[in-house]
Design a protein that fits this description.
Length: about 220
Amino acid sequence: MSQDQKKRNAAKVAIDYIKNNAIIGVGTGSTINFFIEELAKNKGFIDGAVSSSVATDKLLKEYNIPIIELNSVDELPVYVDGADEATKNKHLVKGGGGALTREKIIAAASKKFVCIIDDTKLVPILGKFPLPVEVIPMAQSYVAREIIKLGGQPELRRDFITDNGNIILDIHNMKIENPSELENKIDQITGVVTNGLFAKRPADILIIASDTEVIKK
Ligand code: 5RP
């Protein structure tokens, strides 16, 4: 089975967590695009979505799903998003699509975070996928030097500016043995906006699609 078919299968199962007329948080990426397609099959199923990126805004608009500002709602009941890596503890690396900051804000403001992945993304230890860090442009060199002190190898994501006008440093070869501790350490570097570790606020539900089944953890 193709990776895309597995992503689609996981996305279908995530629909079970959405109640009629809800306003939900929606992430960014190819897996979430399948989820938006599923949402759109039931016209008027949800009242609207808080979107995590300009790319997701575009797709929601194409399907006439109302986009709601986060500041105009209270806590969101559910946030659905993909990930680049996940452990069985539901710690994640996110930000392959560069939307990590808005994704982290929506995750923080949501009661339940449902993360949908295919089984290639389930790992025993995070860090094989380069860890994205959103950085204020003038702090690029300083932040890169501080990341090297933490043991990682930062690489500027070429030709990429985030929806917030910042750059991304992708950290290679980082040994992520304690995700919450590293999340804190990177966030404390002046000039860092957010890093792609989701450990302090992990997923609540992991939906994992393999060739033969879709399991929920
Ligand atoms: C975007 C993300 C995505 O969830 C992550 O990159 C996974 O993407 P895809 O569903 O395309 O594999 O964090 O910032």
